[in-house]
Each structure stands twice: as structure tokens, then as C-alpha cells.
Amino acid sequence: MDAAALNMTTEIRGHGFFLFVHLPRARADRKLIDALEAIGAPLENVHDVDGYPTEHASRRGRLQYLRAETPVTEWDLPDTGMTGANILVRLEGRTRDPLVAYEREVRALVERRGGSVHARAGINKERTYTSYAMTQFAYAPALPPRPGAACPLGVVTPQNKTPEWWAMDWMRRESFFLPRYDDRGKIIAQGHALASAAGIPCITRRLVHHPDGYGLGTGYDFIGYFEFAEADASVFREVMAGLRNRAQNPEWSYVREGPEWWGRRVATAEELWA
Fold it and tell me: Contact at 8 Å (CB) between 56 and 261?
């Protein structure tokens, strides 16, 4: 469905690409590593950047290398392009052109060595279900992007919403993000906001949307990306467990998840196969 028909924002603020690479260490020769560094040079490597991107960096395009960290957890939607990947290159930028150019060159390098690249892409938008009060609760105290040394773990969580979700009117959909109360004012379900509250101060989060709309049956409606410190890995797991608890977060009854891919942020292409 079209975003405007769903009463959701339509303004595109940027683009996000996730390049899941399948290439064993034995095929990662010196020429490949040098070529990856060369084609990545026009983009800003965010590994050592502390804070939000500058306008110049956003227009230039940005990248982060990640090396697969743990076995992938599979949920409702199989995706072998993600589950088999030992490398992820995450790209973001104001425009698509530098990201598309980078993807094209990486794909040629990897496929020449018998590997494969599986791209998952989306667009950045303004938040739709966010009042001023929710902004103060969930976003004003949120952890800004941190360098890889401070937040070395990155996790990708793609998902689709069910047709029943998209058939709801926007007010009903928005209500799922808030707690539910009984007649005496007691909370009987946390909703998305409270279920994920523990992660606000310690997990950096980003979200991209399907570029063509929602509920289309191709790709993912949303792809979430999160970064955090080693010490906060347990917080992330607790937050995801809380969101998946359908009694406390009824929204998840309408969620179908792709694989949960964990990676370790690294500064250079060579470290991807270290």
C-alpha cells in the first residue's frame, strides 16, 4: 500500500543499503581487499565517527563494515541471502547514486571470486507514529551514533507487517505503540514503547522503509539496524524478547520477522576476514 493512503509520511530523507556478502576467507585475496578500500574511499567510513552525520557526509555517502559475529537466528521469513552471509557492508546517504555505484563495484569484485552479494535496501523517513510527548520519551534521550570502539556490535532485524495490520485505520495502528490500561488505570499491556524502553539510552537505532510502499509481498516493509556496546547485548536481547511477547506487546501479532543477523563492526576491509 502507498504510504499516503496509510496516513504515513512520504518524505524521503535518505537511503540505506545492506550488502550481505558470501565469500570465504580463502578467496579474500590482497587484490580484493585493496580494491574494496579503494572503492570505499569516496564514502565516509563511520567506524571512528562519534555523533550524527554532517550534511556533507550524508551527501557523500557513508559505510560501515561488519563481520558476522554469531549464528543467525531465523524467525518467520526465510532469507538465505542474509543467513549465509559472513560479511555485511552497511551503506547510508542522502542520495542513492553513490550507494548504487559502490554496490555495483563490490558485486563485480565478489562474484569474480565465486562469491555473492545480496542487497537489502530501504529509505529513511520522518517518524509517523510520534507525538511531541513520544519524541521526548523515546528520542530525546536516545543514544546517538557512537564509534565502533564504543558500540562494536551491530544487528539487522528485517520485518513485514501482516495484511491485517495494513487494513487497520491509522489511529488503531498507532494505538499499539502505547500501553493499554484497564478501567482502574492499571497497565495490562506495555505496548511497543514500554517494551523497548530499556534500550533507549544504550542502543543506537535506525529504520529504513520499503522504497515502494508496504504490504507488497516483495522485500521487507522495514529493516531495523541497531548498534550497542558488548555490555548492552543482554539489554538488546531483553528488549527483543519484550517486543516479541504478544501478551505485553500485541503489535507483534501482526509482525513477521526475517533473520536476526549479528555482526561486529570493523574499521577496514582487511578486518572483515581476520
Answer: no
